[in-house]
Amino acid sequence: MAEGNYEVVFNGMMVRGVEPDQVKQNLAKLFKVDISKIEPLFSGNMVVVKSGIDQEAAGRYQAAMKKAGAVCAIREKQNENVKPKADPAPQVSQPQAPSEKSATETVIENRQTEVSSSSDDDMLAPPGVQIIEPVVVPEPEIDISAMNMAEVGADVTDPVAPPPPLKINIDNLDMAEVGADVTDPVAPPPPLEVNIDNLDMAEVGADVTDPVAPPPPLDVNIDSMSMADAGDDVTDPVPPIPEPDIDISKLKFADEG
Prior knowledge:
Helices cover 10% and strands 7% of the residues. The chain has a domain at 6-123. It is built from 2 helices and 4 strands, in the order βαβαββ. By secondary structure, it is largely without helices or strands.
């Protein structure tokens, strides 16, 4: 494989929704190593999984690990003259290759991985590192051959036609004097015709209301009535309630059978 200027790094970041134990098992199966050798990859340090490859090969490494649930990054190869602090990483063998070569084919050679400094900055990928697959957006094709540039300050809005002039005939109108009432005249109501020939003036203090006839006297006959003694019951007597005649000779208690 030709040398390149890219390397694949991993700091333990995983695909959202995938359990960590499952990711470790997937990586162990991918690298064909014991799961105990995968544990150091999740220490939080930035581990160089593969270095000295071109961008296309780095993309295949990235895709294979992402399929296993691990999110790795691609960055330009660091200067080898600067030796960062290194911890031994697990020896990994080539993952099982598919029957046919494809864009997702991954070849991970046995090598001693390099580990960078364990500072907090190593938890994040360096600026410019490609951590997602690039999406190529096609450039839009817009035909502007029929367009031209207006002068500075020109009105580029659509012109609005002015409303048609109002046609009002004022030939029969004239000007009233200052202070004149220009409202329409209101006809006065007709005079009331009230006949008071049969009316005269009453004396001061006289009752001018219509006289009210007194009610006729009440004609109540009390000849058949008498005065009861004090304490007598003057209510009408209530006849006694007859005792009910109920035949119970055929009834018996339940315990009598």
